[in-house]
Design brief:
By secondary structure, the protein is an alpha/beta fold. It has two domains: 183 residues, Rossmann fold; 171 residues, Rossmann fold, CATH 3.40.50.2000. Helix content is 40%, strand content 16%. Strands 3-2-1-4-5-6-7 form a seven-stranded parallel sheet, sandwiched between helices. α10 links the parallel β11 and β12. α2 crosses α3, α7 crosses α11 and α10 crosses α12. The longest helix is centred in the middle third of the chain and has 21 residues. The protein is globular and about 65 Å long.
Length: 374
Amino acid sequence: MQRKLNIAMVAACPFSAAQGSQVYIQQMSEALVKRGHRVHLICYHFGEHHQKFNFEINRIPRITSYYRFRAGPSFQKPLLDFMLFLKLWQVVKKEAIDIIHAHNYEAPLAGLLVKRLTGIPVIFNSHNVLSDELYTYFRLKFSKRLAKSLAHYLDTYIPKKADFCITVSQEAVSFFKAKGVAPDRIRFIPPGIDYHNTKACTPRAVREKYDLRAQPLIIYTGNLDGYQNIELLFHSIKRVSKSLAEFTVVMVTNSDYNKYKKLAKEIGIDRYILFFYSLTFNQTQEILAIADIAVSPRTSWSGFPIKLLNYMAAGKAIVASEGSAKGIEHLHNGLVIKNGDSEGFAHAILQLIKDPELVKKLGRNARKIVLHYR
């Protein structure tokens, strides 16, 4: 008989939120509870949607000056993460925790501190490799070099100190093994998804609801941080616009989009781009359901974009840069484009718009494949 565990799930982020990491953590926690375990989520002091979950949520004390959903470094992060450590320690002492399951990098640091005090084992759940992402949040060369040095240290220290490591990409397994993690202490476990189909509604009704014209619809969902490579997408759209007069690109995001709204205007594609801010997951699903093409321009190699699972579950034809094309096989369930190739990305979008049968084929195959991740 399987032993039922008391698990501290630690995440240095707001919760809940319609963002990949938070959705991954939420659905993992729900699945563990359904298997009979108790889950205590320790997170930041705020979230986006107030809803009931089948697991307990423990928040750090309220910091009135910090309500940022965007990932990445900030001057207030050390204070928030110290408070996360204190909250975790409090929960561990109160709830007789068996194991600490810590996500990304800041949460494992809090977990390892608590381990020193209590001896409770820590699982490091890597969503990405820090060396692959941290420097993208900085502009100055000095800042980028400093970020790369810090990332190198944490990529080496945390996986080796944790009792076990989980990654969401096979590439990350190889990376951490090269850093000295023993093969029997690390495992690749691709993320799953619990995708509930929206209530049946006609494409016309959805287009009217969101004021979308009856023309080819391309969708991007997710944050707009540097590693997502939105610039490549926009330059690809510029190329598409030279061959196609009418189409719409919908950007569904919880990020501040003013920078990219300005960029779209500067390169002359603003008439094609619509930004939708802070939609619920159900609203996002509605637009995704009527989209013709879903895109992921991200070139970062170490993570598994949760958006791809949503795209595949919705049966969409996908265009993705090879770095982010996890679970996608070229011409089988999507089109995979060489990293940094804006011309190739544009050509793939045009190919799908001109070939509805290929769109249907890729979407059907994508839907079949994603069922294996459930």
